[in-house]
Design brief:
It contains five helices and no strands. The chain is mainly α and 110 residues long. Helix 1 packs antiparallel against helix 4.
């Protein structure tokens, strides 16, 4: 498995986690974050929203870092420098033949 494939798997996992964290949040504070544990489990709704907010920013930062690192590991194997069509057109192309200008013969008016 190539390094680029590993980065693609990690990016996919982080994207899925980021989607889940964002879907759990509610801007008014009454979403799933308030029904998960209430005030007994996680120390209240405010701490739950703080945790979700920090996890969103952390996952977004990790996603950007993975994308930048994956671009460095990309070898460019899919580039078109090895295209057979380009090679065929280069070998079959004939050089342009210069056109010779010959003066047109004119018949004198009779």
């Amino acid at each position: 498995m190539s390094t680029f494939s590993i980065f693609l798997v990690l990016i996919t996992i982080v994207c899925f986690l980021l989607i889940v964290v964002i879907m759990v949040q509610n801007p008014k504070g009454g979403g799933l974050s308030s029904t998960i544990g209430g005030s007994q489990m996680l120390g209240g709704v405010q701490k739950t929203t703080d945790f979700l907010d920090k996890s969103t920013w952390t996952l977004a930062t990790i996603l950007i870092a993975l994308i930048l690192l994956s671009s460095l590991s990309f070898t460019g194997a899919l580039s078109d420098t090895d295209s057979k069509i380009i090679e065929q057109t280069e070998t079959t192309a004939t050089p342009a033949v210069p056109v010779q200008n010959t003066p047109a013969t004119t018949n004198p008016a009779e």
